[in-house]
Amino acid sequence: GIQVEQSPPDLILQEGANSTLRCNFSDSVNNLQWFHQNPWGQLINLFYIPSGTKQNGRLSATTVATERYSLLYISSSQTTDSGVYFCAVYTIKAAGNKLTFGGGTRVLVKP
Amino acid sequence: NAGVTQTPKFQVLKTGQSMTLQCAQDMNHNSMYWYRQDPGMGLRLIYYSASEGTTDKGEVPNGYNVSRLNKREFSLRLESAAPSQTSVYFCASSEAPGTGASAGANVLTFGAGSRLTVL
What is the DSSP letter of B73? Predict the structure, then answer.
């Protein structure tokens, strides 16, 4: 099946810093989503971005489908950005019907 | 709107006991999913239901059964719990099953999670 790798696995930031998270995938995708899991475990969808660029406040994401990667940018980080960021992909080629998740990037923003 | 509601939030079982995790969504979504999350790992799909009346196995279905009771409800049953099933379980739903339709239709909405410990 499709492989999804996220980097870096861990990231420590000082409040106000910028950062880039990366998601590589091994096959063409029809659906790519970024999620944030807060320290209390709640998973929130950040972006649905199978291609192109989107922005939402201090967060933005870019997916280059032809090169099989997606980037999540966090600008002017805040302590509330702490948590784990997951990307998940879906390919119509895969048997079944599922989003495959990467292993996540754990982000800690220090005040 | 409540979104996706899971019960119970916490459960402790002994090996061999059975239990059912309940999930309900009030967004009129067609597709529903059960995932498990183990420490330090991403989410792995257990079972999904692309639409009412259908269920299919995901990546890790062994030891679990599901029932799509109606469009709103999708339950996950452990018939004989094992310590390897200690995990946090998440239910999710989406309007569409993964591709096609409008972009927003493919977005997953998750419940708050259910923490299960099997002793």
Answer: B
